[in-house]
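Quick one:
INPUT:
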């Protein structure tokens, strides 16, 4: 029997679940088990639980066949628990370092109480950590353990289950279980606390209570489900009726009930407007039915609300709430005026266009800050033309890039009247970065965020931990992300990252990256055409070198001597270089350029064609590795400054331990790998296979079609993924050239 059983229910928490489980498994107290309950979650939560269970035998996973809600999911976990004590942890929260050892130590010191109450802190998305406002109630004062009657003020703690450890035999003896519905913690918490003869306290923060910016909190949900609070307090008073020895708690629990009803009634964003009168009537009926004899109402404004409930004076209550709403409306109008003045700065013309109807058959595309027609938006554009030719497709392009727009693509110059008109009236806005802060998200518009890579380096809110890498305003960033309706992903890893670092109310579409469809579907002729456009001779090996940008460097310092590399590898090798730097003007470099031994492809409009043409990729930390891996061709990581990059920029995994192929940390080692052929050997292939299965998970060649059918055509059921073992990819250059050689 383990000392502690932690019950962790999971539902739509894939972005936070790994952090929760890591906080448990990294504890320095080993005597525990985890009962993880997949509440029929529609995302990858269940798969994440299974992956952790495979790695650690202390994790036991239950997969429910239907979604039953938080309370009943906890019940399912309790049935499988074997520990001496039960702990509950919500799957988006985390334990603090050393929490379990502190809990176990306090339980022993207090003589194994029935309940141990410990502290928590609120952890906000913007980095703030706020302590529990009633933490002073947990300070040790008196005996090691006690009944609630000696510390009745503990009822004023937040009525939550996850800041307590419960002795399992006490839970079984009292027949405690969680009811269905909202506010399921109330019956459990109140009934257990008033029943326990021995309660102990731990004045230590053991749980970080995540305050999610979007979702995950019923208190921010407008719904009739808030009526569940009546059933929950009905259960509490039924419990009191069944236990007359606890009758002393009727008065305190009546006040908790009334305060809770008033909170639901008066807080904005909970009850639908047309349900308020009904809620008040039910609250008033409960008040009169359960009013204890001799109960004294509190004083002040709260006492007036009690009196209105007792008299059933909804009109009086509504008038009082109306006065509050009036004050809120005044503040909103002030904000609207301010926002209007800001919008006026965008131009009267844009404002006039925003008043016109949306064009249901107009889509505006942009990529890389409107610098090119490329990436995922370009692939979606092409598929949209095939499946929905009635949709007019327009590209936003910077003035200095219009000469690079491919023939046949309609475009508007950023900042022009045509641009503001299309931006205001297009039904669909597609981008692989964010549109400018000045863009207004209209009701009915659909913003599709395609992203432009799988993240190795930290992104979004995670960049706050690495201030050397960015100077962005995170508040402004999230305001831009609030406009998203859909966010694309090419693997579950990316989905969980995006949902955590961009905590907004979009829908994640696990479609694969549309730009990678060509890497799956390209033919031998496509490969030959790509190589011919780069003037690559049939017998040459072409290595594509794509180093990443380092934001923390004022300028780029090349870490690879390309001239020496070209000389060492010999005349049968061509280096295609795509990067953010200038690599010299010596006569030797010019000779290598003229001979085709070094080809600058930094300005090539379609990186996917470079991938098709290359025999192998050499990169450091660029997201190119994830896309190129779709081809199942060799990837060589040249990581001469990994320790610096990972420390300063921050990364999501250790590339040295999970590479897509061979790794070199010096130029000499890189040359050895390339000359020996080890970069394309069996060990490199094993690394590549593992990498592809994780990071090329959804790239099966039909991503663009999935996106168009879901976003533009409104089809709810997405095309099924082609099983990984059945997928194809473009032929390698030698394979593409074989038919010509045989001919």
């Amino acid at each position: 029997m383990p000392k502690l059983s932690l019950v962790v229910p999971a539902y739509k928490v894939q972005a936070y679940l790994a952090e929760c489980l890591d906080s448990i498994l990294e504890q320095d107290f080993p005597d525990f088990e985890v009962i993880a309950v997949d509440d029929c979650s529609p995302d990858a939560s269940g798969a994440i639980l299974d992956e952790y269970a495979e790695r650690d035998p202390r994790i036991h996973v239950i997969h429910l066949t239907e979604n039953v809600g938080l309370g009943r999911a906890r019940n399912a976990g309790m049935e499988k628990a074997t520990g001496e004590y039960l702990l509950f942890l919500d799957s988006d929260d985390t334990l603090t370092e050393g929490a379990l050892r502190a809990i176990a130590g306090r339980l022993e010191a207090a003589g194994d109480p029935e309940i141990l109450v410990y502290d928590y802190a609120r952890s906000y998305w913007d980095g703030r950590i706020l302590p529990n406002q009633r933490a002073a109630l947990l300070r040790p004062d008196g005996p090691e353990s006690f009944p609630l009657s000696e510390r009745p003020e503990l009822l004023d703690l937040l009525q939550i289950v996850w800041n307590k450890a419960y002795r399992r035999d006490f839970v079984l003896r009292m027949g405690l279980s969680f009811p269905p519905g909202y506010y399921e913690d109330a019956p459990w918490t109140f009934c257990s606390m008033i029943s326990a003869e021995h309660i102990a306290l731990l004045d230590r923060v053991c749980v970080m209570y995540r305050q999610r910016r979007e979702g995950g909190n019923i208190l921010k949900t407008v719904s009739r489900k808030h009526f569940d609070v009546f059933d929950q307090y009905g259960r509490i008073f039924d419990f009191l009726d069944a236990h007359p020895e606890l009758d002393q708690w009727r008065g305190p629990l009546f006040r908790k009930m009334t305060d809770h009803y008033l909170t639901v009634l008066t807080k904005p964003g909970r009850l639908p407007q047309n349900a308020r009168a009904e809620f008040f009537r039910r609250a008033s009926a409960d008040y009169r039915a359960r009013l204890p004899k001799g109960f004294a109402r509190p004083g002040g404004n709260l006492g007036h609300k009690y009196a209105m409930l007792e008299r059933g004076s909804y009109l009086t209550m509504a008038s009082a709430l109306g006065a509050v709403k009036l004050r809120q409306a005044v503040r909103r109008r002030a904000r609207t005026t301010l926002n209007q003045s800001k919008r006026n700065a965008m131009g009267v013309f844009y404002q006039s266009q925003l008043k016109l109807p949306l064009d249901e058959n107009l889509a505006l595309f942009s990529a890389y800050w409107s610098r090119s027609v490329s990436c995922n938006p370009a692939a979606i554009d092409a598929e949209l033309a095939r499946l929905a030719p009635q949709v007019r497709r327009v590209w936003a392009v910077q003035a200095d890039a219009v000469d690079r727009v491919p023939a046949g693509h309609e475009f508007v110059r950023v900042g022009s009247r045509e641009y503001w008109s299309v931006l205001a009236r297009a039904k669909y806005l597609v981008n692989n970065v964010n549109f400018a802060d000045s863009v207004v998200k209209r009701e009915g518009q659909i913003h599709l965020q395609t992203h432009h890579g799988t993240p190795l380096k930290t992104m979004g809110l995670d960049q706050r931990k690495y201030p050397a890498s960015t100077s962005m305003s995170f508040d402004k960033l999230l305001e831009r992300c609030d406009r998203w309706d859909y966010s694309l992903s090419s693997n579950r890893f990316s989905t969980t990252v995006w949902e955590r670092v961009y905590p907004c109310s979009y829908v994640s579409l696990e479609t694969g990256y549309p730009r990678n469809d060509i890497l799956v579907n390209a033919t031998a002729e496509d490969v030959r055409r790509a190589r011919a456009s780069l003037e690559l001779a049939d017998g040459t090996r072409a290595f594509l070198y794509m180093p990443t940008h380092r934001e923390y460097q004022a300028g780029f310092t090349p870490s690879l001597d390309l001239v020496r590399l070209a000389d060492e590898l010999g005349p049968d090798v061509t280096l295609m270089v795509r990067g953010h730097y200038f690599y010299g003007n010596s006569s030797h470099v010019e000779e290598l350029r003229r001979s085709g031994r070094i080809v600058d492809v930094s300005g090539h409009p379609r990186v996917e064609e470079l991938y098709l043409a290359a025999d192998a990729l050499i990169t450091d930390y660029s997201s190119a590795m994830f896309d190129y891996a779709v081809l199942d061709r060799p990837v060589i990581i040249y990581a001469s400054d990994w320790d610096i990059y990972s420390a300063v920029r921050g990364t999501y995994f250790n590339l040295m331990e999970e590479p897509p192929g061979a790794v070199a940390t010096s130029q000499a080692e890189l040359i050895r790998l390339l000359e020996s052929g080890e970069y394309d050997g069996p060990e490199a292939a094993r690394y590549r296979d593992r990498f592809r299965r994780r990071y090329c998970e959804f790239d099966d060649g039909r991503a663009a079609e999935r996106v168009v059918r879901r976003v533009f055509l409104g089809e709810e059921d997405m095309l099924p993924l082609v099983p990984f073992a059945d997928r194809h990819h473009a032929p390698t250059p030698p394979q593409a050239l074989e038919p010509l050689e045989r001919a």
